Amino acid sequence: MLKGQKGITLVALVITIIVLLILAGITISLTLGQDGILKRAQEAGANYTNAARYENTQLKEFDNTANAIIYNVTH
Hints:
The protein is mainly alpha-helical. Helix content is 81%, strand content 0%. It has one domain.
């Protein structure tokens, strides 16, 4: 730049835009790709739901067994 001039050059502006486009492409790829964040979040939600159902089933079975033992001991 010449003395006394302020501002950015066209080259610096183009390089900045290119870097931002590259970063945006990487972000979109990581988010929406085949093994992206959104897909992993959906799988984690499904795994959590399945684990909660399994845990509830196990707790009900345990409760039924405990009630049967208590009933047999008291009668």
